[in-house]
Amino acid sequence: MIKRFLVLLIFFLFSNKLYAEDLIKTLSDAFKNNSRLNAERASLEASKQDVNISRGEFLPSITLSGDIASQEDSKRINQSGTKLGDTSSTPESKSILVEQKIFDGFTNYNTLEKSKLELEHAKFELNKLEQEVILNAAKAYYNLGYNFKNSEFNELNVELFERQVESDRSRLERGEISLTDFAQSESSLAGAQAKLITARNELISGKKNFQKIIGSKAPEEIDLGFFPNLAIPNTLSTATAIAEQTNPRLNLAKLDLEIAKRELFVARGDLAPSAKLSYSRKENKDFSTTVDEREQEEVKATLTWPIFKGGKNLSSVKKAKFKMEEKQLILDDVLEQVQIDTANAWTTYSASKGILDATSAQLKAAEIANEGITLEYDTGNKRTTLEVIQSRTLLLDSRTSYAKAQKDFAIAQFNLLASIGDLHLDNIK
After folding, report:
1. Average pLDDT, stretch 360-377?
2. Would you call 60 helix, strand, or coil by DSSP?
3. What span, in angstroms and rounded, lies between the C-alpha atoms of 380 and 141?
4. Which of 87, 212, 126, 61 is nearest to 425 (CA)?
5. Crossing angle of the two packed helices 248-269 and 107-173, in degrees rounded to 10
6. Which CATH superfamily is domain 17-60+106-271+311-427 in?
7. N or C: where does the chain have the smaller number of CB atoms within 10 Å of the terminal CB?
């Protein structure tokens, strides 16, 4: 007895491990093959370079320049009209210019801070899309699992009705049942066959949908009874608190507001004076019959103050203020929507657990009832054909309801974690 138990336990653990690996592979394939994710990763790298560009504005700029030319005079004539000899020259010039901003109304500082916020924004955009990909992949996986089960159950149902029709044909010939009873069996078989065709078509569609979303071939078997070990919050209040901190949509809205504030600071900086220091050195050489060399050095401090630009700078400040107000209102709306979405996801998750338990009990009762009614019918103990048909129909409905409940419960877990912003590939075991 103990040996048998250990064998079953080992088989159970091994099967769970295989199905966990199957699920994780599915999600990993979606990660690898999703073109939107790859595009978002490229956008993130571009945002990193924007930060480097903004940092570069704090450093001095150094410019080197130089040129060389060739000149030739072949028709030189003096004042008396006498033709002179031909001459040629190769003038050269080179210069260096070093400039360093001293003050710019904190424009560079706020631009740098804005680029850092935009980098965080790109990270949350990627995080948001990653969670969407995981959720859609999980839906495709468990929906396909339901399609497998639904097709399987309908095949079993057809087999049951085929055996019943054959049995009832013999009983009709023996006069044990009426022609009406036999017609009911044939009608039920035809109905079961129609349902099987629908189930098989849905399975084909499920495989196509899986391949479209995941980007790889659909598996031939999925265990709907396997539920990954996910860190589900214990209460709605806990889920809401987590969502207010981790939900990527909410964090994106918060960053949009902070970026708008920095844009306002940048716009205000355009109204302030700016100052810079510069150093320049120039050398000019003219190689002709007589060498002419000139050198020039200059250290200069420059102060500029935009007094009037046609009102553009003031309008830019006003525009930035309105944009900041807009982002604040959007943030308030997103916060409310995240709270609603989290509550809805929690309600769906809680309900799915109850439905799973109820359909499990319903299935067990339907299996017992069908077994008993079928046995009584086969032994001639006052069970009608209609009762058998009803029993098998109930059994099929119970099987599909339980499979759907398994699928819905699994998806509800993923959906809840996505709603709070805590659906990550590393957390799925």
Report:
1. 94
2. coil
3. 45
4. 126
5. 160
6. Outer membrane efflux proteins (OEP) (1.20.1600.10)
7. N
pLDDT in tens, 49-103: 988 888 888 888 888 887 776 655 555 555 565 555 555 556 778 888 888 888 8
Q: What is the pLDDT of residue 1?
A: 45
In a 10 Å sphere around its CB, with 0-12 CB exposed, 13-18 middle and 19+ buried, how is residue 322 labelled?
exposed
pLDDT tens-place string over residues 217-240:
998 889 888 888 888 999 999 999
Return left, alpha or beta for 274; rule: phi > 0 is left, psi -120 to 50 is alpha, else beta. beta
How far from 219 is each of 13, 403, 428, CA to CA, in Å? 20, 18, 19
Q: How many CB atoms lie within 10 A of CB 61?
A: 13
From the list 56, 49, 39, 58, the residue with the least C-alpha distance to 118 is 49
Cα dist from 343 to 220, 247, 249, 356, 376, whole Å: 36, 13, 16, 20, 49
Q: Which of 427, 403, 414 is nearest to 138 (CA)?
A: 414
Q: What is the 3-state secondary structure (H, E, C) of 186-249?
A: HHHHHHHHHHHHHHHHHHHHHHHHHHHHHCCCCCCCCCCCCCCCCCCCCCHHHHHHHHHHHCHH
CB atoms within 10 A of CB 323: 18
Instruction: Report the largest interatomic distance among the alpha carbons of the chain, rounded to a whole angstrom.
Output: 146
Please answer whether residues 240 and 342 qualify as being in contact, where contact means their C-beta atoms are separated by less than 8 angstroms: yes
Spatial contact of 352 and 408, defined as CB atoms under 8 Å apart: yes
pTM (predicted TM-score): 0.81
Q: Return the DSSP state at 106.
A: T
